């Protein structure tokens, strides 16, 4: 039996234009099999929405030159906020995910949603004003948290470092905007940022977030792997022999986080005297040549490399991307990581493996949050729903 092919919607045509697969009305008709009348109707709706604009004339193949169709990234904006244990970064971005305005603030550990989210929303409103973006042009919001996010509900499922956030619907702080709100794990957000970075060269990637805690985001053929319950990539809570007997923030014992996570090596640094307040302070000391700080960061890399060797054997990624606060001391951390990763991984999986810093550096979190929002906002189904409301 011949399978019935669904008639391409305006959203599906928009996706072709956004990817650059079609650039003229004739190419749309050829790619979709739609009549000229149907193509005109769908493109009229997309042009009216502002998501598609007519640009310059394309080269003529005889007769009147066709007008090029282009995705308009200025047709709206998305808000992005990477919420951390002690620091939150925010941005307003266009529909390509490019940052238009950004800011950040530090806060005390353990803030509950009712304390932190109003501050986040106020800061985002200020950024919208700075960027000249009115509320009715915001099409989506992307948030990230250092916890497991339930893909079915978009809420925190397990948050050992931000207690009180589990099961909290964060979208309620953005209800007045009437837009899509996407909540993502923080390491996954770093991986999504690489869809506009290293994934263009290596579509199979493991992205390490080495910061206060440890996590990994995985891209396979350019697509994010979240796992059945959204718990893929919980690298820091892998049990390792070196952590035997050490109590983790998650309440368990023996996690990698207790010997290699930023919070743990900051605690251990108290033995050196004058303990740093945060992993960023320890990284700064290491970059200034402090021998004890350099030793602890390199040792963190060694511990992480032992666990990543198994990840490399299992997934055979093209590259390992290093992000997070510890990545600011990239050379020191990676020197230790290379020692144990290459010793533990098979030659077949590691010989061609590249280890590289995050494309977007300290902005990777907000870039990833923006990409999460953009993916939702510009999906064919969301575009079709928006056009129906505007009709």
UniProtKB/TrEMBL annotation:
InterPro entries: ArsR-like_HTH, ATPase_NBD, ROK, Tscrpt_reg_HTH_AsnC-type_CS, WH-like_DNA-bd_sf, WH_DNA-bd_sf. It comes from the Bacteria. Pfam families: HTH_24 (PF13412), ROK (PF00480). SUPFAM superfamilies: Actin-like ATPase domain, Winged helix' DNA-binding domain. Belongs to the ROK (NagC/XylR) family. This is ROK family transcriptional regulator.
């Amino acid at each position: 039996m011949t399978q019935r092919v669904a008639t391409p919607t305006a959203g599906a045509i928009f996706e072709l234009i956004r990817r650059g697969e079609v650039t003229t009305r004739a190419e749309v008709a050829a790619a979709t099999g739609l009549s000229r009348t149907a193509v005109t109707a769908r493109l009229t709706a997309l042009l009216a929405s502002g998501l598609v604009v007519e640009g310059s004339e394309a080269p003529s193949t005889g007769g009147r030159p066709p007008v090029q169709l282009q995705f308009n990234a200025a047709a709206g904006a998305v808000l992005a906020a990477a919420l951390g244990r002690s620091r939150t970064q925010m941005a307003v971005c266009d529909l390509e995910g490019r940052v238009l305005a950004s800011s950040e603030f530090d806060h005390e550990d353990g803030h509950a949603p009712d304390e932190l989210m109003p501050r986040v929303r106020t800061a985002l409103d200020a950024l919208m004003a700075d960027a000249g973006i009115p509320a009715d042009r915001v099409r989506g919001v992307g948030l990230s948290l250092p916890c497991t996010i339930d893909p079915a509900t978009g809420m925190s499922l397990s948050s050992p470092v931000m207690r009180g956030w589990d099961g909290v619907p964060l979208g309620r702080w953005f209800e007045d905007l009437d837009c899509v709100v996407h909540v993502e794990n923080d390491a996954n957000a770093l991986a999504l940022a690489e869809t506009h970075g290293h994934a263009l060269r290596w579509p199979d990637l493991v992205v390490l977030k080495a910061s206060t805690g440890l996590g990994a985001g995985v891209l396979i053929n350019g697509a994010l792997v979240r796992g059945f319950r959204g718990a893929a990539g919980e690298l820091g809570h892998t049990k390792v022999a070196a952590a035997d007997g050490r109590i983790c923030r998650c309440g368990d014992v023996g996690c990698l986080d207790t010997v290699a996570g930023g919070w743990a090596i900051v605690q251990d640094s108290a033995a050196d005297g004058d303990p740093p307040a945060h992993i960023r302070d320890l990284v700064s000391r290491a970059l200034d040549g402090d021998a004890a700080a350099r030793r602890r960061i390199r040792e963190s890399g060694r511990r992480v490399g032992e666990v990543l060797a198994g990840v490399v054997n299992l997934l055979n990624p093209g590259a390992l991307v290093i992000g997070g606060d510890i990545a600011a001391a990239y050379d020191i951390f990676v020197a230790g990581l290379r020692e144990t990763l290459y010793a533990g991984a098979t030659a077949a999986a590691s010989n061609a493996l590249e280890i590289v810093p995050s494309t977007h550096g300290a902005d990777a979190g907000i870039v990833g949050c923006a990409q999460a929002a953009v993916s939702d906002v510009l999906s064919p189904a969301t575009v079709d729903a928006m056009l129906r409301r505007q009709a």
